[in-house]
Structures
1.
Amino acid sequence: MAPLRTILEAQPLIMTFLRARNFEVQLARKIKEVNLDNLVQNFEYIKKLQVSRHYPQYYHKTGKDGRPLYLEQLGNIGLTAMYKITTPGRMLQNLAVEYEKVGDPRLPSCFRKAGYLVEDQLNASSVYSNVRQVAAMSQNYCPERLGKLYMIKARWGFSTDFRIDKGWLDPATVEKIHILGGNYQNDLLAQIPAENLPKKLGGTCEYPGGCAWSDEGPSQDPLFLN
């Protein structure tokens, strides 16, 4: 039988599940048993382009520590109108699929570029209505994928609401969530190079057609794909 270290190095996802549940094997096994492979292979988000015009969700370059950067911005449409296009369940399924795909090729290409192990991502979002569901999904089914989550442009009273909701979340997940108001730019720029952060969020990055459609990052660079 191969040594435990060899097995874990060959299958780093096992270590991810174990760390997420403080090496409680039975709890880690419950996470592993959730069949996300089937969802990744068969999920079709037919209205993704239509949704993205109003609710951009995209990966774009990296943070200062090499983590892939994931951004969400609620555009010129309210969530009530958004749910006439899609459903909250479909939006969360799409996020679950993206979380799974970040394991390959995004994270491997990021740690090849950084020169050290990169195991999770950096999120910035201005969407609050589903933060509890997103955080719960992250801790339950995509453990250790979330490195930090910055909730920007937080409305008045959101911090109070979140203090109530966070009782449902694992303390390790709660520590990763940072609630920021309208003056969020300096906090983001402390984590993200200005040239990697879209201009509309306080950075200097601009692309023809918008950063949301560029998919720029190490996973698009042939130097870091293999």
2.
Amino acid sequence: MVVVAAAIMVVCNKNEFIRKPESPRTRSRTNVEVKEGALMVLVLKVISCAINYNDGLLKEEDLREVQKKNRLVKLPSLIEYVGYCLCCGSHFAGPVYEMKDYLDWTERKGIWTHSQKAPSPSPYGATVRSLVQAAFCMGLYLYLVPQFPLSRFTEPIYHEWGFWKRLGYQYMAGFTARWKYYFIWSISEAAIIISGLGFSGWTDSSPPKPRWDRAKNVDILGVELAKTAAQISLVWNIQVSTCQVHFNCMLDVNGCSPCLPIQGHRACPDA
């Protein structure tokens, strides 16, 4: 499994080895961000799969509830493993999800079981909402980026401005840059939802409604209206941060609390 993961990462990063050296000024920052993001998601998937398979080798009574839910009792096939690592809907920007959920989705098990009593929910409404959100994010980004380019920080005129004007420009430049990430996460969310993998169960309302938050990677209003920096980690890159905190807690022999200073974090096992 580790050898296959290494081969996948080499293939994904092969352009780094074969292309000619470039000047730092001409190197595309966007290409670097996409490549690093894809490799980060891939590494997290590899770690997740390895730990879940290791949990499958342990006694079930020694595991936490979340470990019991995601444990793999048998080694996935090569096709299943590569398909999980390179799933096109989440390869470049996430979200990260468990191998067990991926296998249940492909085999129509668990919450994805087809039956007359529990028909599969339609993903089209949630997909359209994500696409509309993505279009709005990209439109706003394209409108703002010519007015607040990051390159202006290196221009002489920026250093001639007063303190408050520079502070305002810094805020608007950061605000503008965030909408690029909102766009790509919205597109990824739409791709996962339309495939059906984004389905995460039913609400407790009457009648029950389908939930599609498995692929949700950002809460835009939560980020923009956060009162503290601690709140941002709960609503920015949600699935990746959840995965990181979850496995940090698992590696802590004393339990979850030392790994998680943020009270009420959704990623805390057995919380």
